Sequence to fold (306 residues):
Amino acid sequence: MKRKNGYLYEDLSTRKPLLNEMKMNDFSAFFPPTHTAMTLYESGHKYHCMPGHYTYQRIYDHYLLHYILDGKGTYYCPSGTYSITQGDLFLIRPNEPIHYQADLERPWTYYWIGFNGNEAFHVMETCGFTNECVVLHHGKDMELEAALHGIAYPKKTGISREYELLGYLYRVFACIIQQHLRPQMDNSRQYLLNAIDFINQQYSYCNLRVQDIADYVGIDRTWLYRIFDTCLHVSVQEYLQQFRLDKAKSLLRFSAIPVGTVAEKCGFENQAYFSTVFKKHYNMTPIQYRKQRKEAVIGLPSDISK
Fold:
């Protein structure tokens, strides 16, 4: 588990699959994202589940989506308690404590995917998920199953695997969107999307302020804070800083430009401040991160499942 913003978050690197019960992939361990719009963190296939099996309370820093292939279970989250059955989709949102349990008589089997990115909130809205609606009944869908299977059992290796996975991921979203009407977006969510779009354009300016974002969106700074807290469970400043760090990780991993230039391109005041923030979040300096990721690629196995 890792602590962030006062919470203990699930650490993918410490998770172990139960033998003869599941296939599990931790993509974040080997492939730092080059696409901050949407990044796949994990995937899996729970093909056998013990009756009544349950998870302890968990908090994630990314979205997780489960598709139930068979059986039943119960999902507990801040918005309520839900009985889940075959054909259902249930969404776990970032920064929310959740747990779930398989049925005693008909334990579920399912595929799951974990993802995040600048587009994630908007895509989930388009799929039909909101703060008040985290479960959708989708029904039997062979195309959706095929896309999820492709994410759980990827065939390509190296950098090409990221593109393979992204292709399957957007197929999953397309299957869901095609069947579920997009709900009417309220003003708060539209303001949030506008703010995220502005951050995407202006994050490289180190003097970008929360007030600048609020002015662009056209609302009061306090209201903007409230929207981010309600929808994403982080402050505007925390979102901006994580956005910059995600960009920096990609540059560190997939370019050879100096660390000082990375800091400048990603909106940090100077290299020293960038290194301090980076180490606080990841327990290593930018230079150590770059070295570790390059060594990981050199020794990259053909199958990254655990």
The chain has a mean pLDDT of 86. The chain is about 40% helix and 20% strand.
